Amino acid sequence: MKNKKRGKKTMWILTAVAVPILLIIVYFIIPFSPLKSDFEKAVYTEISTSGTSAEVFTSEEIKALPIPVKNYFETCGYIGTPKMTYMKAVYKNVDFLLSADKPSSKIDYTQYNFVKKPVRIAFINTSMFGIPFQGLDSYIGGKGGMKGVIAKTFTLFNETGTEMDIACLVTVLSECLIVPNIALQDYIVWESMDDTHAKAIISYYGITASGIFAFSENGEMLSFTTNDRWVIESNGTKTQIPWSILVGDYEEKNGIRQPTSFKAVWHYESGDSIYFDSNNSIIEYH
User: 194-208: per-residue pLDDT in tens?
Assistant: First the structure.
């Protein structure tokens, strides 16, 4: 009799332990997550207010742009094609460094850039030691933010503030030629430099940021560099450090030449740190 009671007690203990573990595993496996839901709601809101465009890119509207920027529009085949109201870009299996003192991991990264106003919303999906890690990188209504959540529940970081507002705005600027209708908006001003470089300044919500684009001789964009971004250390320290994006490996898709490789680089005094490295991006215009 005692053995039966002991067996039942053991079974109840095992069940009490196993059920929560099973529920946790199921929660990790199912697609739903609160942060992803926030991302999807924000994207839906922006798409629903972005409208549509019946216009096409014309040679007339780019004639006042710096020479290398005009060359970019022509070389990449945008003239005569429909203007987009937003872009969706998907990067799979990206080499990503969350911080310089940690090993790289593989992430999937999905982003949306909108034209009418400078809005950028991106979602990171990966795992750490088998536990889901997700991130939301956003610039909406003039406010920038970067939030990281582990196990779909616990917030590891949630960076906001003036420095983040400026950094996220300059990130929009860095990608304006990937979504070239953004490059023609009134909130961006172009300054000529030489045949392969041009400066761009973006101003919105009372904030201004700038950077320099570099181009190949045939008009392909190669890089964007700015001083308007900060590295935020794990202890909260914020340091202004030069930052670049590098693009390349152009391929023609539907008559338009688009880069397929993207790198994001911090230029530390000790050397460059590539923290985002993708070579299989997919870009869609809407």
Answer: 999 999 999 999 999
Q: Is residue 161 part of a domain?
A: yes
Can you list the positions of beta strands (E) in 178-280? Answer: 188-194, 197-204, 207-215, 221-226, 230-232, 238-240, 243-253, 256-268, 271-278
In a domain, 127, yes or no: yes
Domain range enclosing 84: 34-285
Run means of pLDDT, 10 residues per run, the chain, 286 residues: 55 43 40 86 95 91 97 97 97 85 84 97 88 94 94 90 95 98 98 97 96 96 97 77 96 93 95 93 94
Burial class (CB in 10 A: 0-12, 13-18, 19+), 203: middle
Structure tokens at 135: 């991130």
Give the span between the Cα atoms of 10 and 187, in whole angstroms: 68
Q: What is the pLDDT of residues 24-66, one digit of tens each?
A: 443 344 455 899 999 999 999 999 998 888 899 999 999 999 9
Which of 114, 243, 232 has the alpha carbon at shortest distance from 178? 114
**Rounded to an integer, what distance in angstroms lies between the CA atom of residue 63 and that of residue 210?**
22
**Is 131 domain-assigned?**
yes
- 14/244 Cα distance (integer angstroms): 54
CA distance readout (Å), 91 to 44, 125, 280: 20, 11, 6
- Count: domains in the chain: 1
- Output the domain CATH number for residue 232: 2.50.20
For the four alpha carbons of 260, 222, 145 and 83, in that order, the dihedral sign comes to: negative
Contacts of 81 (CB under 8 A, 6+ apart): 56, 57, 255, 256
Q: Is residue 225 part of a domain?
A: yes
Burial category of 1 from C-beta neighbours within 10 Å (exposed 0-12, middle 13-18, buried 19 and up): exposed
Residue 151 to residue 128: CA distance in whole angstroms = 9
Q: Is the Cβ–Cβ distance between 121 and 112 less than 8 Å?
A: yes
CA–CA separation, 78 vs 57, rounded Å?
6
